[in-house]
Design goal:
With about 290 residues, the chain is of the alpha+beta class. It folds into two domains: about 190 residues, no CATH class; about 80 residues, HAMP domain in histidine kinase (Helicase, Ruva Protein, domain 3). About 65% of the residues lie in helices and about 10% in strands. It is built from seven helices and four strands, in the order ααβαββααβαα. A four-stranded antiparallel beta sheet has the order 1-4-3-2, sandwiched between helices. Helix 1 packs antiparallel against helix 6 and helix 6 runs parallel beside helix 7. The chain is rod-shaped, with a radius of gyration of 39 Å. It starts with a helix and ends with a helix.
C-alpha cells in the first residue's frame, strides 16, 4: 500500500471516529435542547392558565357574585378552574394536540375527572405532599410523543366553601352537578393536578433536521480537510520521497550524473535530501578512486 493511501486510511479512521463521536454527542444535545424548548412552552402555558385563574378570582367573580345571589343561580364562569379550562379550549381550536386539564380525583364537574395516568400523577403528589411541586414526564399518544407538566391542586379555604359537604354548597350548584361528586375535600389535601400536555413531534423533527444539516456540514469539512491534507502530504512528503526513490534507483544501476536534490528548509525531508546528496557525492568519489 502506498504512503498516501496509508495516510488516507489512518486519517480517515481518526477523523471518521471523531465525526461519529461528534454526531452522537450533537444528536443527544439537540434532542435535549428540543425537550427543554417544549418544557419552556409548557411552563409558559401553565403560567398563562394561572393568570386566567387569577383574573377570574380577582375580577370576574366579584362582578358576578351579586348576580348569582340575586338570581339564586350558579355561574361556572366564576370558578377559576372552569375559566382556565374554557380559556385553553379556545387555544385548542388552532392547536388541537395541546391540552390543559385540572384533573381531579373527585370533581364536581365530571369532565375534570382524572383518567388513569392523570390519577397516577395526583397520587404521586399525594404520597409526597411536602415534596416536589412540579412533575415532568413523557407519554405516548396517538399523535406521537407528548411532554406533560403537572402541578398539584391543594384544597384551600375558598375550595371548601363548596366542596366540604353537599349541604354547604350553593343549591344552584347542586342542581347543576348533583350531590354525588366533588365533596368530602379536606383542608390542604391534594385533590388534583393541573396538567399541561405539549406535543414533542415538531421540536423533535426540527432537532433531527438540524442534526442532518450538522452531519452534512461536518462531512463536508471532513472531506475538505482530507483533500487539503492530501495535497500537503503529496507536495511536502510524497513528491520529495519519490525523487529520492528515483535517484536511488538510478544510482543502483550506476547512473551518477543526475542533479542534486533541492534542500529547502530544515525539516526531516530536507535533512534526508541533504544526507542523500552527501552520500551520492561520497559514493561518486569512491567509485572514481576505484576506477583510477
Amino acid at each position: 500500500m502506498k504512503l498516501l493511501a496509508k495516510f488516507n486510511l489512518i486519517l480517515g479512521l481518526v477523523l471518521g471516529s471523531g465525526l461519529a463521536i461528534a454526531a452522537v454527542v450533537s444528536h443527544g444535545f439537540l434532542r435535549e435542547d428540543a425537550r427543554e424548548e417544549v418544557l419552556r412552552q409548557a411552563r409558559l402555558m401553565m403560567e398563562a392558565m394561572q393568570s386566567a385563574r387569577d383574573y377570574t378570582t380577582k375580577q370576574i367573580e366579584p362582578l358576578l357574585v351579586n348576580q348569582q345571589e340575586h338570581q339564586r343561580s350558579f355561574l361556572p364562569q366564576t370558578v377559576p378552574a372552569f375559566a382556565a379550562t374554557e380559556n385553553f379550549n379556545y387555544l385548542r381550536t388552532n392547536y388541537p394536540d395541546y391540552a390543559y386539564k385540572e384533573a381531579t380525583l373527585n370533581p364536581t364537574n365530571l369532565r375534570d375527572r382524572a383518567v388513569d395516568w392523570e390519577a397516577d400523577i395526583i397520587n404521586s403528589f399525594r404520597d409526597h405532599p411536602t415534596g416536589a411541586k412540579e412533575m415532568v414526564g413523557e407519554r405516548s399518544t396517538p399523535t406521537g410523543e407528548s411532554l406533560y407538566l403537572a402541578r398539584p391542586i391543594q384544597a384551600g379555604p375558598p375550595c371548601l366553601e363548596c366542596h366540604s359537604v353537599a349541604r354547604a354548597a350553593p343549591p344552584a350548584m347542586i342542581r347543576r352537578y348533583g350531590s354525588n361528586n366533588g365533596f368530602g375535600w379536606q383542608l390542604n389535601e391534594i385533590v388534583g393536578a393541573r396538567i399541561v400536555s405539549v406535543p414533542m413531534s415538531l421540536p423533535i423533527r426540527m432537532a433531527d433536521k438540524a442534526f442532518q444539516t450538522l452531519v452534512i456540514y461536518l462531512a463536508a469539512v471532513f472531506l475538505a480537510s482530507l483533500i487539503l491534507l492530501d495535497l500537503v502530504v503529496l507536495f511536502a512528503v510524497v513528491r520529495p520521497l519519490r525523487k529520492l526513490s528515483s535517484m536511488a534507483d538510478q544510482i543502483s544501476v550506476g547512473q551518477m550524473d543526475m542533479p542534486e536534490l533541492p534542500v529547502r528548509g530544515k525539516d526531516e525531508i530536507a535533512v534526508l535530501a541533504g544526507s542523500f546528496n552527501r552520500m551520492r557525492h561520497s559514493l561518486d568519489r569512491a567509485l572514481k578512486m576505484l576506477g583510477s
